[in-house]
Design brief:
The protein is an alpha+beta fold. It is about 30% helix and about 20% strand. Helix 2 packs across helix 3 and helix 4 packs antiparallel against helix 5. The chain is globular, with a radius of gyration of 20 Å. It binds zinc ion (ZN).
Length: about 290
């Protein structure tokens, strides 16, 4: 039996404030959502102000590292060199690359080229070529807070269809962001991306999606971009998650690299694109914490 929290008790979010001045109205809103039959987020998914501030600072490092990659990435460079840039820049900003040694992952960043959907492992033997599209996925731990974002880079003379895939995938992110509204279900965002991709003739990867982030690298909820709009938890202020659809030029089917156990490819060998933003739900809408 959990004791009901009193108006003058300290709030459950550990802000140190009284419940009535902190999350009391929030809990009433969530109860209304629950009464409508919506799934509601667990308290673990709700960040307090101090945590949001910490994730924002982590996001600044993540953005700075990606900006540095954007300035230096070029044809003829190995993906190992991207890994080195990410490692060194992150440490220079007093951060730690979150992927390094995460569940045995050997590098500081994921670099996924063309038909690689995600989790491409940097290597000195993989050289960026003219016409490649590459996703660079950077995740940072800064003062114990996690942030996560990725960008696509088009190298040299990229084919028009690949260029359009990259541009449209970015538009899908922007569209998804416009659906991040407090007290709406996260499925509305995911479904908007799905419909957009389908309308433009693409498919969306189902098996891999976004995730909560901030206190840990990967938290609840799983964020799908292939779902009915009536699905998923309510987006409540204080939630932080990633929007990172993987959009394919061909079919949605994917295969995993047996040898390295990480890299995911499109089964049909057609190109795939992905952008990723870490977003916080606010009282008014959303805030991009890393992009
Ligand atoms: Zn609170």
């Amino acid at each position: 039996m959990i004791k009901k929290i009193g108006r003058n008790d300290l709030c459950w979010c550990q802000s140190g404030r009284k419940y009535k001045a902190c999350h009391m109205a929030f809990d009433e809103k969530l109860t209304q959502c629950k009464d409508k039959g919506y799934k509601i987020p667990s308290r673990k998914m709700i960040k307090n102000q101090e945590q949001l501030d910490g994730i924002r600072e982590s996001g600044k490092v993540n953005i700075a590292v990606l900006d540095y990659v954007a300035e230096h990435i070029q044809v003829g460079m190995s993906t190992e060199e991207i890994d080195r840039m990410v490692y060194e820049k992150t440490l220079e900003y007093n951060g730690i690359p979150a992927p390094l040694n995460f569940e045995g992952y050997p590098k500081s960043v994921c670099t996924s080229i063309n038909e690689e959907v995600c989790h491409g492992i940097p290597s000195k033997d993989i050289i960026l070529k003219d016409g490649d599209i590459v996703n660079v996925d950077v995740s940072t731990i800064y003062k114990d807070y996690f942030s996560d974002s990725s960008r696509m880079f088009c190298l040299g003379k990229v084919s028009p269809e690949k260029q359009k895939l990259v541009d449209d995938t970015k538009k899908a992110i922007e569209l998804g962001l416009s659906y991040v509204k407090p007290w709406h279900r996260i499925g509305e965002m995911g479904n908007a991306i799905y419909e957009f991709a389908r309308e433009h003739g693409y498919s969306v990867v189902r098996e891999v999606g976004g995730h909560g982030v901030g206190i840990e690298f990967h938290e609840e909820p799983f964020v799908s971009y292939c779902c009915p709009k009536e699905s998923g938890v309510v987006m409540a202020p204080g939630m932080v998650f990633t929007i990172e659809p993987m959009i394919n030029l061909g079919r949605s089917d994917i295969v995993m690299d047996d040898e390295n156990g990480w890299t995911i490819y499109t089964e049909d060998g057609m190109p795939s694109a992905q952008w990723e933003v870490t977003v916080a739900v606010t009282e008014e809408g959303y805030e991009k914490l890393a992009y």
